[in-house]
Design goal:
The protein has 95 residues and is mainly α. It is built from four helices and no strands. It has one domain.
């Protein structure tokens, strides 16, 4: 009987560990889907801005095409370590 309880205990721990890893993987998937959704919304909103609004924020239509045009929703510049111009990067240096 002692042997069975030891085997049960080891099996329970391994199943629990597997379950925790599975949940962590699902969490990463959900975070990635949320990021893709946010990127898609931001790009759509940027493309919908008028030329006057773009001028107010210092962008041209060509900048919008380069930043948001013809990109897939999963094309994340942060993950690709894309070399963006300094004016498109957030920086605390000037503050």
């Amino acid at each position: 009987m002692e042997e069975q309880s030891i085997e049960y205990g080891l099996g329970y721990r391994s199943v629990r560990k597997w379950w925790q890893k599975s949940l962590e993987q699902w969490d990463r998937v959900i975070v990635r889907l949320q990021r893709w959704n946010e990127l898609s919304k931001q790009r759509r909103q940027l493309r919908e801005l008028s030329d006057e609004q773009l001028k107010d924020i210092g962008l041209s239509r060509a900048d919008v095409v380069r930043i948001a045009g013809n990109r897939w929703f999963w094309d994340d510049p942060v993950n690709r370590k894309e070399d963006l111009d300094q004016r498109y990067r957030y920086s605390d240096r000037g503050r």
